[in-house]
């Protein structure tokens, strides 16, 4: 368990949440500036990474932790600790960035924090990178591109299942789609 990248990620969640909570006691505005990914990103570039491990509250932290436990332990069995952490952080940052950029392009730019995009990336990887999915997809008379398109439609459907006010749907979709593509390419295989 100590060497488990999933357990390590949970520990980082808790440390960042504790720091975030302490800073919030001093100043909510300071906590926002230190932990939340918001435009302009160039003014606080560290938030690209920190926001992946920060959470909007205990319920947000617990929901991400539960899904992380459900999928993280399975994904870590096929990869190395470093690949796992790099994948998690990279997908989380890309998902958060996608949320900020897309929301800014279609209306008022939104701020984002939380590991949902990264966790959705692990879910997508687990779904697309396993032999059962290969078997199911092999039954369908589809080209490689059509299979990827089908997986992206699945990503859209799964994303819509999480729709609620304040939920970063673009980040969920981006994380899940990146995970699906990474799973098809099996980039985490050691």
Question: How would you describe the overall organization of this protein?
Answer:
The chain has 190 residues and is mostly helical. It has one domain (5-185): Rhomboid-like fold. The protein contains 9 helices and no strands. It has helices at 5-26, 28-35, 47-53, 58-76, 81-106, 116-128, 131-139, 144-161, 169-185. Helix 4 (58-76) packs parallel to helix 6. It starts with a helix and ends in a 5-residue tail after the last helix.
Q: What is the C-alpha radius of gyration, as a whole number of Å?
A: 17 Å
Give the strand tally.
0
* Total domains: 1
CATH topology tier name: Rhomboid-like fold
Instruction: Tell me the series of helices and strands, N- to C-terminal.
Output: HHHHHHHHH
Straight-line N-to-C gap:
19 Å
Report the uncertain regions: none
| CATH 4th-level superfamily | Rhomboid-like
Classify the helix fraction into a percent range.
Answer: over 70%
Strand content: under 5%
Number of helices: 9
- Which structural class matches the secondary elements? mainly alpha
Largest sheet: none
CATH class: Mainly Alpha
The gist of it:
It contains 9 helices and no strands. With 190 residues, the protein is mainly α. The relative contact order is 0.14.
Write the layout of secondary structure elements.
Elements (H helix, E strand, L loop, with lengths): L4 H22 L1 H8 L11 H7 L4 H19 L4 H26 L9 H13 L2 H9 L4 H18 L7 H17 L5
Helix pairs in contact: 1-2, 1-4, 3-5, 4-6, 5-6, 5-9, 6-9, 8-9
């Amino acid at each position: 368990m100590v060497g488990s990248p999933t357990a390590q990620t949970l520990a980082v969640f808790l440390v960042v949440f504790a720091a975030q909570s302490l800073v919030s006691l001093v100043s909510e505005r300071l906590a926002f500036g230190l932990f939340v990914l918001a435009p302009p990103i160039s003014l606080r570039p560290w938030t690209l990474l920190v926001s992946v491990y920060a959470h909007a509250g205990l319920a947000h932290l617990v929901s991400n932790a539960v899904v992380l436990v459900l999928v993280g332990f399975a994904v870590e069995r096929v990869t190395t600790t470093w690949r796992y952490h790099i994948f998690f952080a990279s997908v989380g940052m890309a998902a958060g960035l996608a949320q900020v950029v897309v929301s800014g392009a279609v209306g008022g730019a939104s701020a984002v924090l939380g590991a949902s995009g990264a966790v959705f990336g692990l879910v997508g990887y687990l779904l697309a990178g396993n032999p059962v999915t290969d078997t199911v997809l092999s039954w369908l008379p589809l080209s490689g591109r059509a299979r990827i398109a089908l997986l992206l439609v699945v990503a859209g459907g799964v994303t819509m299942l999480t729709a609620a006010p304040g939920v970063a749907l673009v980040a969920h979709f981006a994380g899940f789609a990146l995970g699906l593509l990474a799973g098809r390419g099996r980039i985490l295989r050691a």
